[in-house]
Specification:
Strand content: 5-15%
Structural class: mainly alpha
Oligomer: single chain
Helix content: 55-70%
Order of helices and strands: HHEEHHEEHHHH
Number of strands: 4
Largest sheet: 2 strands, antiparallel
Radius of gyration: 19 Å
Strand order of the largest sheet: 1-2
Shape: globular
Number of helices: 8
């Protein structure tokens, strides 16, 4: 879901120790399922072969748990909120300047920021039942509701980074990962998502 991440992130996501994660990643490296990137953004990533196996395992997991209908229903509930979340993230990054043009949001307008935070809280109130539905269907979805709630708490405490800053578990970062997880689990290509009208 993260594209490239380090061992500690894999460990936390999988609920295993860093030593166990390292051992598993080493095994998968030897099997050609993952690769290790170095440089500016070092970390582990799935290979095409790894992505293919992941898709097969996700499909089998859905079938074994008889969870396709529940996950698909939750996914549609998520999609109904997705546009609003993306719009409020845009409004967090941009605002209307004194001449009526859009400018980068320097967070000097407390009324603008407060309005966006209110909208984020409304979206979070609506998505939490969706997250609970997903967690009830498949345990591995259980981390998303608490992670979104934690990011919201940071935002409400006044830490502006937690709305949409990359490289931390900001609200938008966790939301994006949940979206990617839903697509991967249901075997849906991002460009072929159904149109869902917000309720």
């Amino acid at each position: 879901m993260k594209g490239v991440c380090d061992t500690d992130v894999v460990s936390a996501a999988a609920g295993i120790s860093c030593d166990d994660a390292n051992a598993l990643l080493g095994t998968h490296l030897g099997s050609g399922l993952v690769l290790r990137r170095e440089g500016r953004l070092p970390g582990w990533a799935l290979t095409p072969q790894g992505r293919e196996l992941d898709a097969e395992l996700a499909s089998a997991e859905l079938q074994t748990a008889n969870a396709h209908a529940a996950v698909d229903s939750a996914y549609r509930g998520f999609l109904a909120l997705n546009t609003e979340l993306l719009e409020l993230c845009t409004d967090w990054q941009l605002r209307v300047g004194p001449d009526g043009e859009q400018v980068l949001n320097d967070h000097s307008d407390p009324a603008h920021d407060a309005a966006v935070v209110r909208r984020l809280c409304e979206v979070d109130d609506s998505v939490q039942p969706v997250c609970a539905e997903l967690a009830a269907a498949l345990n591995r979805f259980g981390r998303y509701g608490p992670s979104l709630r934690s990011a919201r708490a940071h935002v409400e405490a006044g830490d502006v980074d937690w709305v949409a800053k990359p490289m931390i578990d900001s609200y938008h970062s966790v939301w994006f990962e949940l979206h990617e997880d839903l697509l991967a689990t249901l075997g849906i290509e991002r460009g072929s998502e159904p149109a869902v009208t917000p309720s």
